[in-house]
Amino acid sequence: MPDIWEYEESDMSKRDDSISAMCTPAIGEAGKTGDWRSSRPVIDHSKCIPSLKKKPACFLCWLYCPEGVVRANIPVEIDMDYCKGCGVCAEECPSKAITMVREGATDE
Ligand code: SF4
Ligand code: SF4
């Protein structure tokens, strides 16, 4: 029977540091997937931590977005061409700066 610790050690030696969970939005066969959205995230920058502190901070929306469509800029930006409206960013935002708004509704 193989030694599990030996296996894990050899497996780690094959680790490729260039592999990460991050993906980059791009036009694929499905086109601009933001077209599928039924609601969209709206950021209140007066509550958003990087905008308030005027320095890179938080960016949990960028970290958790499963589509990789949040740009960790000041102010934070979302690529609406590819945002699917899942609402994960709004759930994870610690300052409740993101509100999900039904498509077709006004932001206010
Ligand atoms: S709604 Fe979903 S896909 Fe759109 S920015 Fe937020 S986490 Fe990303
Ligand atoms: S998670 Fe909320 S507070 Fe943090 S950067 Fe994103 S919008 Fe701003």
Can you give a write-up of this model?
- Helix content is 23%, strand content 13%.
- It has four helices and four strands; from the N terminus they run H-E-H-H-E-E-H-E.
- The chain is an alpha+beta fold and 108 residues long.
- The chain has a two-stranded antiparallel ribbon. It has a two-stranded antiparallel ribbon with strand order 2-3.
- The chain has a domain at 39-103: Alpha-Beta Plaits.
- The structure holds iron/sulfur cluster (2 copies).
- One iron/sulfur cluster binds next to helix 2 and helix 3.
Short description:
The protein has a domain at 39-103: Alpha-Beta Plaits, CATH 3.30.70.
Intertermini distance: 64 Å
Beta percentage is 5-15%
Biggest β-sheet strands, sense, barrel: 2 strands, antiparallel
List the ligand species. iron/sulfur cluster
Find the count of extended strands (DSSP E, 2+ residues).
4
Strand order in the largest sheet: 1-4
Chain-averaged pLDDT:
84
Low-confidence stretches: none
Tell me the series of helices and strands, N- to C-terminal.
HEHHEEHE
Structural class: alpha+beta
Q: Give the second-level CATH assignment, the architecture of the domain at 39-103.
A: 2-Layer Sandwich
